[in-house]
Design goal:
- The chain has 318 residues and is of the alpha/beta class.
- It folds into two domains: 165 residues, Endonuclease, Chain A (2-Layer Sandwich); 142 residues, Endonuclease, Chain A (2-Layer Sandwich).
- The chain is 38% helix and 26% strand.
- It has ten helices and 18 strands.
- Strands 1, 2, 4, 5, 6, 7, 9 and 14 form an eight-stranded mixed sheet that branches.
- Strand 11, helix 7 and strand 12 form a beta-alpha-beta unit.
- The protein is globular, with a radius of gyration of 19 Å.
Length: 318
């Protein structure tokens, strides 16, 4: 009965995405994992997963259960950095009828976090399927039912699953690394005219920092929220000196900022938000396999803006 209810609620969510807009936002840890588990439970034909780190017994069981009911389940797991953490899930899935492969070693890491169900809906996520982090990390997942987006994600998945090299799609919504994330994110930052609201786990790319400094100098209201890391202290100071507002959470705080989000020009007709797996580092933008999406749906912009505003207010000024 619980499974049927979860699937029903998820189908309602998918129906809403199809009827009202192409995208639905899931905010973590606020909403919990039920929507993403519902995505796995709802599949009747296929599930394709690309995951940097998989250490969630419930998600693993759901994938195995899907395979047992003759759903085609394929999974790509990172090996270059997460072999140790992923080995248990790899072995479990392989033993339970899931087609699981290690990611192409040509990438410094396969840091992408995505799920596609029935070639109809994709979850493009900032979070890994790693259950120990769910209660404490700020993350987002975008449920994307745009047919062009889903088809493009599937084309790249097929190549990655086979160990081939495929150029990322030119689809204007999707943000791929290592192909074109640099251009897409720089266009978003440099195109901002009124505001930039950012949450990030990493901020080591000097070109990104420079673009944010330039935006602040140009009068754009730049707000950055992160969990404190000493290695970014110099960049925090540069941003503050340029007029940006930087606020941080202690590493011991109840909330850890793991999201990778840029919200530009909220409240204007040109507003857009990026959410995805890309950290703001050279490795993430230029060497890893990553996936994000740029969304303009008003309801998602409002939801993310509200979350970023609340997180900003609760953090400590740098």
């Amino acid at each position: 009965m619980l499974r049927q209810l979860t699937v029903f609620l998820f189908c309602c969510l998918v129906s809403y995405a199809a009827d009202a807009a192409a995208h639905v936002i899931i905010t973590e840890p606020d909403q919990g994992m039920a929507p993403l588990y519902g995505l796995l439970r709802s599949a009747t034909r296929m599930i394709d997963v690309t995951m940097y780190e998989l250490a969630d017994p419930i998600a693993e069981q759901l994938l195995a259960q899907a395979a047992a009911r003759h759903v085609s389940v394929r999974v790509i797991l990172d090996r270059n950095r997460e072999l140790h953490n992923n080995q248990r899930a790899f072995d479990y899935l392989q033993q339970h009828g899931v087609e699981v492969v290690w990611a192409n070693e040509q990438y410094e890491a396969t840091h992408q976090k995505s799920i596609v169900a029935d070639q109809k809906i994709a979850a493009i996520m900032t979070l890994n399927l790693t259950s120990r982090y769910y209660p404490t990390t700020r993350d987002f997942a975008v449920l994307d039912s745009d047919p062009d987006d889903v088809a493009a994600i599937e084309q790249v998945f097929q190549a990655d699953f086979n160990g081939a090299v495929k150029a990322a799609s030119t689809n204007s919504d999707l943000v791929w690394s290592p192909a074109q994330s640099v251009d897409r994110l720089f266009d978003l930052i440099r195109g901002a005219r009124t505001s930039l609201e950012i949450e990030a786990e990493e901020l080591s790319d000097s070109a990104i920092v420079t673009a944010l400094v330039d935006a602040a100098h140009a009068g754009v209201a730049v707000q950055v929220v992160m969990t404190y890391d000493q290695s970014y202290a110099q960049n925090f100071t540069k941003l503050v000196q340029a007029g940006a507002q930087v606020r941080i959470y202690s590493p011991n705080a109840a909330l850890h900022i793991h999201a990778k989000v840029i919200l530009a020009d909220y409240g204007t007709p040109d507003a857009a938000v990026f959410a995805g797996s890309e950290n703001f580092s050279v490795a993430s933008l230029e060497k890893n396999r990553e996936l994000g999406v740029i969304v303009r749906d008003p309801s998602i912009l409002t939801s993310i803006h509200q979350t970023l505003t609340e997180d900003f207010r609760a953090a400590t000024p740098w």
